Amino acid sequence: MSTNIEEVVTPDRDDAVAAVAKASMLGKKKRQRKSWIQTSSRLGAVVVFLILWSVAAGTLVDTFYLPEPTAVAEEIWDWILDGSLWTNIMATMVPAAQGFLIGGISALVLGYLFAMSKTVSMVLEPFVAAAYGIPVVALVPLLILWLGIGRSLAVGVSAIVVFFLIFYNVYFGIKDVKQEFIDQVRIAGASQWDLVMRVRLPSALVWVVASLKLAVPHALVGVVVAEFLTGSEGLGYMLSSNAAQFNAAGTFASVVVLAAISFALDRIVFMISRRALMWKETAER
Amino acid sequence: MALLKTRNAPAVSDREIDTTDLLRVEKVAVSFTGDVDVLSDTSLRVDKGEFVTLLGPSGCGKSTLLNMTAGTLKPNRGEIFFGGKKITSVNRQVGYVTQEDTMLPWLTLAANIGLPLKMRKVAKSEIKDRVDELLLNFGLDHAGHRYPAQLSGGMKKRGLLARAMIYKPELLLMDEPFAALDAQMRAQLQRDLRAAVRDTGVAVLFVTHDLEEAALLSERVVVIGGSPGHIIDDIPIDLGPERDPDTLRFDEGFREIGQTLHRSLQRARGITP
């Protein structure tokens, strides 16, 4: 698919352009078929998994440990009917989104400061590195002391997790820009603002978008962990309370809901990053 | 390839009459690490519309001279004037092209070329017109919507040249711009550059360590060498404004110029003939 127009002499160029256009259209059809095959085989895998599961449940494994898939589905259906599914999803997603925003924006601002000011990075870098190494779960007791239990704790945990995942990407992304690059754009007429908005941040964006794949699901993980430990609502609480009552179907149902949500989030991130990194994608084809 | 035919056509014929200097470097010295000078006591003048090449071995301070003209580097001693004014900060009246690929990879070729005008707050419709005109002149009209990673080295280089020329600078600074290209592409770009210079009347300060390239392109070759770097020779190249590199290579006068440059370059390297 890499017909190089450059090599074609001028009179034939229109033909060449047409040929390239045709080739890319054929490629598009091919890709569409490929993605259809991909989707259907993934669905097939899910079906096979469900069949194996329902065969194993009750015969190989006691339903106390492994409930029937239908029992899990019933449980989820009940939650949909009584509205508790939606309430719990929102109770988890809202703090996750808040935590993501707080963590993400502070990572952007501090990452920028660190990259731009040698003094700031020289003085504070070791402390950030040390803080990065602390398992977030170990910070939860401290956060409880500061934020109490409940939503603000969930927001706090998720913000910290997200912060560290994005911070280093912003820092290195902005530092990564070559001086020669900056000089040329300045000569071409860039103001300081132009440099930030048109060169430094877009350059860091490549790194940030790559880090979103981890940061977005981890915002959710942060909240679930907090709910698990101290919550009275949300998906993490649903999971821990069902497990505490030895309700295997309910526990499985909670896990299925979490899996569905993380799958949906992953798709959204995939779509966003594909849009943001279109220039990279087209080049790799 | 018809390059930039529409703009500033009479500049070439005016050149003899218009003797105002565009760039004046006066007794400049630079050192990077302290006591040892990279460049010392260097004075240079480039007139409007003049094509001057700095020729010399690597590390003699050629690029340093360009960076000072662009205002991204300050001399330790001496002064540099551009258009009669002393350069104190980044010089936005020059276009700068280097060996490096400095296209912004997340912008299309057209957006890259239009970027300088966008940052200079030019109206959108006017930017589009100018970009289209330049794309056409540089034979890139089919590639405006492409991202830099989808372009060949030669296309990128022509795009960078277009980006450096879109705001009509009076002086182009070129730091071994064609060094990384293959011979054929290089010859094509040298032709393109000559044509662009002829059509726009832009002055060029060109850096190379390739003797033939210096002779082919320029009206004056300034040989730099020694340690610390200083000007060894200032050699006029009288080959006229219309030059066809393909026939010129076998021209007797061109060979003589080549020999003169070669001897001078030997001196610059510290080898006495």
From TrEMBL, chain A:
Signal peptide (from-to): none
Primary localisation category: membrane
Keyword check for Flavoprotein: no
InterPro entries: MetI-like, MetI-like_sf
Top-level taxonomic group: Bacteria
Keywords, comma-separated and alphabetical: Cell membrane, Membrane, Transmembrane, Transmembrane helix, Transport
Membrane spanning residue stretches: 43-65, 85-115, 127-147, 153-174, 204-226, 246-265
One GO CC annotation: plasma membrane
Cellular compartments annotated: Cell membrane
Membrane topology note: Multi-pass membrane protein
One annotated GO biological process: transmembrane transport
Family: Belongs to the binding-protein-dependent transport system permease family.
Protein's recorded name: ABC transporter permease
Species of provenance: Rhodococcus erythropolis
From TrEMBL, chain B:
UniProt lineage: Bacteria, Bacillati, Actinomycetota, Actinomycetes, Mycobacteriales
GO molecular function, one term: ATP binding
Name of the protein this chain belongs to: ABC transporter ATP-binding protein
Entry keyword set: ATP-binding, Nucleotide-binding, Transport
InterPro entries found in the cross-reference section: AAA+_ATPase, ABC_transporter-like_ATP-bd, ABC_transporter_ATP-bind, P-loop_NTPase
Domain of life: Bacteria
